[in-house]
Amino acid sequence: MRGTDMRTIVDSKKSSKRNSDSISNAYTPAGDYSSHLAEIQQSIARRAYQLFEDRGCVDGQDLEDWLHAESDVLLQISFSIDDLDNRLIARAEVPLPTADGLEVQVQEQRIIICDRGPIHIDDRPDGLTFRRVFHTYLLPQPVDWASAQISFRDGILEVTAPKLNGDDYVAAA
Q1: Is residue 143 within 8 Å of 163, Cβ to Cβ?
Q2: Are strands 20-23 and 149-153 parallel, antiparallel or unpaired?
Q3: How far apart are CA 24 and CA 113, in angstroms?
């Protein structure tokens, strides 16, 4: 491995001021996402059980209930990766007006996008709508995470990082 996994915190003050933001590369040691993931899984499980109860506690549709609960709890994000001039450019379409409350971690072969708590989506007559964010994307090849650039503009989170060639990757191991 090239070094300790690192993460970049998306600066919520910057992203709420302007429609286009270049996120600074303020790296801190990677956190343990297991408690965060466990909290989200518990939310999904509660929602799946609620759907089961709403159907009259009839067995046989647990997978459908779980998948429906995931779509109710998690904010859906479209993701794509382009390979351009020795760089990987990852784009995530995040249906939010700003990057407030989002955290992005760039690792050698992975990008993690998660929230720092439930994200308020909209006000509806039946109450507030909150969603959770936790998505992990594997990269097709290792990148130099220390040189990654992250920006958020018009609902598109973009991560650009130089690819590591075979020599860089072996030398860093």
Answers
A1: yes
A2: antiparallel
A3: 16
Full set of structural domains in the chain with CATH: 6-31+76-172 (2.60.40.790)
**Residue 91 and residue 48: Cα distance in Å, rounded?**
30
Single-letter code of the amino acid located at 115: D
pLDDT band at residue 35, thresholds of 50, 70 and 90? Answer: confident
Contact in structure between 14 and 23 (CB atoms under 8 Å): yes
Residue 124 main-chain phi, psi, to 5 deg: -125, 160
Is the Cβ–Cβ distance between 107 and 82 less than 8 Å?
A: no
CA–CA distance, 13 with 165 (Å, rounded to integer): 36
Distance CA 99, CA 24 (A): 13
123: its two tokens = 């006000």
Cα 22 from chain centroid (whole Å): 17
Q: Which residue has the higher pLDDT, 168 or 68?
A: 68
